[in-house]
Amino acid sequence: MSEDELSHLLAEHDVSVLPYIEASQSGVAIDALWAALPAVATPVGALPKQFAHEQNALIVEKISPQMIADALNRLFNDKLLYERRSQGAFDSYQKFGPEHSAKLWLQLYETIQN
Asked: What is the pTM of this model?
């Protein structure tokens, strides 16, 4: 998938769903956070560390299609819950997004140069 296709998908959706059975880390998770999308994810690999449960995501307890469906229903049937997870995703973007990352790299570079 090209960067343009991924950007389009992220812009056209309201939530990122990561139904992984196994994973170490997910680039899609980072892309979703950088797009300020709340997530529903399984508790595998580093996904629980990439997201903050009940802040910018709902991490299901077990790998189960029903648990993912229940989390999505909960998210979309509770407007306040969705808004809070969306705000949490946006806050994560502000804190860890590409602009912040670039600023940290520049600070490191300046430190090394001095």
From this structure: 0.76
Tokens 């812009």 -> residue: 11
SS3 string of the chain?
Answer: CCHHHHHHHHHHCCCEEECCCCCCCCHHHHHHHHCCCCEEECCCCCHHHHCCECCCEEECCCCCHHHHHHHHHHHHHCHHHHHHHHHHHHHHHHHHCHHHHHHHHHHHHHHHHC
Q: Residue 95 maps to which CATH number?
A: 3.40.50.2000
Residues of the chain falling short of pLDDT 70: 24-25
Alpha-carbon distances of 84 from 39, 53, 77, 95, rounded to whole Å:
12, 12, 13, 16
**How many domains is the chain built from?**
1
Residue 6 exposure: Cα atoms within 13 Å on the Cβ side: 11
Is residue 33 a contact partner of residue 8, using CB atoms and an 8 Å limit? no
Residues in the chain: 114
